Structure formats: C-alpha cells, structure tokens
Amino acid sequence: MTEETISSDQRLLALRDRIDEIDGEIARLISERADCALEVAEVKKATGEDALYYRPEREAQVLRRAMERNKGPLTDEEMARLFREIMSACLALEEPVKVAYLGPEGTFTQQATLKHFGHSAQSRPLAAIDEVFREVEAGAVSYGVVPVENSTEGVINHTLDNFMTSNLKICGEVELRIHHHLMISDITRPDAITRIYSHAQSLAQCRKWLDSHYPNVERIAVASNAEAAKRVKGEWNAAAIAGDMAAELYDLKVLAEKIEDRPDNSTRFLIIGSQAVPASGDDKTSLMVSMRNEPGALHDLLEPFRRHNVDLTRVETRPSQSGNWTYVFFIDFKGHRDSADIAAALKEVGACASDLKVLGSYPRGVL
C-alpha cells in the first residue's frame, strides 16, 4: 500500500467522522425545533380558541429565509424541500394537516400536495375537482389542492367555475415543473405498442413528440395519468404517459424520459381553504369580477389597476352562470389586498362592477 493510498484512506476516515458529528448536531437541532413546535401548540391551546396551527404566510417566510441563507452546493429548491419536510414533521406534532387533492394517487396534483405540505400531512385523493371543493367546505379536511393552469395548454376552466359558487379562499399556490415519460409494464412488448394512454392535457403537451415517434399509434385519453399507468399493467401492447410518481407507484419501466414538447412545461396549483391569509411580504391576490354588459366595461375594470400601479399577472374570462352573453373576469396580480394601493384599486373596481369577490391574498409560490 502506497503512502498516497494511506493518506487518502485517512482523509476519508476523517471526513466520515466529521459527517457523523454534523449528523448528530443536525439531529439535536431538529429535536430542539420539534420541542419548540410542541410548546407553540401548548400556547395556542391555552388561548381557548380554535387556534390556526398551519400558517401559510409563516411557512412561506421560513422557506424564503432558508433559500436566502443557502450558500450551496445544494440548490435553493433542494434546500427549500428539506426545510419543508422538517416543518411538515414538526407541524404534525402540533396538529396534522388534513388535505384533499384531485386524485388518484400518482398524479401531478399529489406531487404538488407533497411539495407544499410535506409527507407528514394527511392527504386524501378525490375523483373530481368539485369533490375537493365540497370536502373543504364541509370541514372534512382543512385544505384542498386543485390545478388551475398549465403553461402549455392554458387554464383549467373547471377549477375557475367552482369559485363562482364557492365561498372558499385561495390560501396558497404551487408551481410544478411537469416532466412526462413514456412508460411500459413488464409484460409490454415495446415493438408492438398499438395504443398510448394518458390524460388529454398530457397527450396535448406531448403532441409533437408522439407525432415524431409514434405517429400511427392510437392515443386514448383517460381520467388521469395515474389511471393510464394502472391500465398498462395488464396490457402487453400498450404504453402510458405519466410522471415519476405513477411509474414508481405502479412499478413501470420508463421507455423515454421528458417527452413534453416544451422543456419549461409547468402547472400551477391552488391551495384552497376557509381562512384569510395575512401578508407574508411577497404575495399575490386573486379576484373574480362581474361587469355590466356595456361599452367600455373592460377599460373601466382595468384602469384602476394601471392608475394605482398594480401589476396584473393573469386575466381570464369565463361565461357567467347568471345569463347569456355575460362574463366573469378572473384576475391575478402581485401584492396583498391589505396594502394601500391595492385596497384603493379594489374600491374603485367595486364601484363600477356588478359583483366583485376577492378569492384570496396568499404567498407567492416558492420555486
């Protein structure tokens, strides 16, 4: 054994000893943080009121600070993910968060739920967006997670329509980078694929890739990517387009990775609940506005935002449920409803609108 080998071995041993020391310190600090969380729970219980254990604005602030302090080599996103899981586990000691999401298991909505609430939350898959709204309204769960728009295919109208009849508020948002994979089961013959299952939006997001690689294969739209993955388990001549969670859940082999047509393909999800969220320092506000059907109505709606320097990030139009040829505007903008400029703009919009409902002010999605 050379001196160089001995030196390398000694250095490895020293590094491993140092890692063990650091791991011990991390474990001690996590336990200390968990003790603080339990004390917070006791203080809240002592008030005798229905205490809010999950505070979206507080969690967003903690995650932002974690990323601001990050010096690498881990990415900001990875650092935020680690802190999210620590917060999730500590919160579960106080009061486990119950969350419903658009299922089934293995969907991107479940992935968004885990990204926002962590693995210690008690999550429940439901079959439809309407059911998620109903479960939160009934108090069976505290929060719901529903998709609202995709960067390639646009807005999910069903989610917007539910806000027309619901009193729930938007408490947060999650943006998820969407990667689609072509996957098969252990009985699939790759050279004999005659049909590909996926959700209609996923098929649309992979249209060019499919046209190039499987132009003559039937494309079958199903209720979810997870259902597509499940079907493939029993078919020797079929493949599915889905994400990593579905491949893992149903033990499928990925035949081709990241087949989405746009590399920046992402979906935005909303966290819905019954509570109003205080300002976090970096917020968005969403509102729903019905305007009278008259000349200049759209100008009257948008002008107050321009005058008060409010930065609009999205404007969507949906047919009103109250009559033909009348429309509802869904508007997102930067800032919290309690700030002076936004409060002034909303007051002016409300004066010219036939109806205005603030759907919520909430922390902007962290990564």
TrEMBL record:
User: Could you name the domain of life of the organism this protein comes from?
Assistant: Bacteria
EC number(s) from the headed UniProt entry? 4.2.1.51, 5.4.99.5
**Xref: Gene3D superfamilies:** 3.30.70.260, Chorismate mutase (1.20.59.10), Periplasmic binding protein-like II (3.40.190.10)
Annotated signal peptide:
none
One biological process term from GO is: L-phenylalanine biosynthetic process
Q: Which residues form the ACT domain?
A: 286-363
Record's function text: Catalyzes the Claisen rearrangement of chorismate to prephenate and the decarboxylation/dehydration of prephenate to phenylpyruvate.
Q: What is this protein called?
A: Bifunctional chorismate mutase/prephenate dehydratase
Organism classification, top ranks?
A: Bacteria, Pseudomonadati, Pseudomonadota, Gammaproteobacteria, Cellvibrionales
